[in-house]
# Entry
Amino acid sequence: MTSSSKASVDTRRADPTRVLSPGREFWNAFSAHRGAHAAFLVLLALAVAAILSPWIAPHDPTFQYRDSLLVPPAWSPQGSSRFLLGTDELGRDLLSRLLYGARGSLGIGVASVFMSLVPGTLLGLISAFFPRRAAPPIMRVMDVMLALPGILLAICVITVLGPGLSNTAIAIAIGALPGYARLSRAAALSEIGREYVTASRVAGAGVVRLMFSVVLPNCLGPLIVNATMGFSSAILETAGLGFLGLGVQAPTPEWGGMLSAARDYSEAAPWLVLVPGLTILVSVVCANLVGDGLRDALDPKLRRAH
# Structure
C-alpha cells in the first residue's frame, strides 16, 4: 500500500463526520460510561459463575460437614483453604451456596422481568391504540395494583400461590407489571401522532402492524432501561422474600435465605452475613449502573451531551 493510500485510510478513520452503524454508535456511547462498562462485566461474570456453578463450585451446597461448623474464611488465621469463604452453622460451604444461590437470585430476576415486560408492553400498546374502549379498564386495574408497594403485592401473591422458585418469579412479575404498562402506553402515545405513523396508516398498515412494526421499535429505549432497573429491584425483592421465608425454600440456596439463616450468628460468625449481603449489594449496584449507561447510550440528547 502506498503512502497516499495509507494517509487516506488514516484520514477516514480519524474523520469525526464518518457515519457509524446504530449498533456501533450505541456500543461506543455505552463504553464511554466506564462505570456501566465495568458493571456490565461484573454482572456477566456473576451470570457465567451462576450457569457454571455445578462445575466450578468446590462442594455440594447442601452437604453438611459436621466436623467443620462455622469455619471462618481462608484468609482468617482460623480459616481453611478447603473452604475459601468459610462454612455456615450446618457446615455447608459458603462459596458453593453463594454460586448456586446466584442461579436462583439472578434467574428469578431475569424471569420476572421477562414475565412483566412482555404483557405490560402489550397492555400499554393496546391502551394507547384503543384509548376509549381498552384504556379505561386497563389503566384502572394498573392504578389499583400501583396502590400497593411491589414487595407487599408480591407477598400477597405468594400467600395465594405458595412459596417456591417459580411462584416467586410470578409474584415479582405481577408487582412490576403496572410500571411497564404505563411506561409503554406513555411512549406509544408520544409516537402515535408523529408523521411516520400517519404515513404508515395512510399507506394501509393495520393496527397490529402499526403497534409492533412501526411504534414499538421506537419505544424500546425506555423499556430496556426500565427492564434493567427492574432487574435490580427483582434481585432485592427476591432477597427480601427469601429473608422472610416466603421465597425459595431451604435447603435450596438463595442469597436472601442465607441472610435469614445467618441472623443468629451475626456476631459469632460475621462472614455469614457479609458475604451474601455484599453479593446482593454488588449485584444491585451493577444493575443500576448498567441501566444508567443504557439510558445515556439510548438517549440521543444525552449522547450528544457526552
User: Anything to note?
Assistant: The CA atoms of residues 75 and 246 lie 34 Å apart. The longest helix spans residues 94-129.
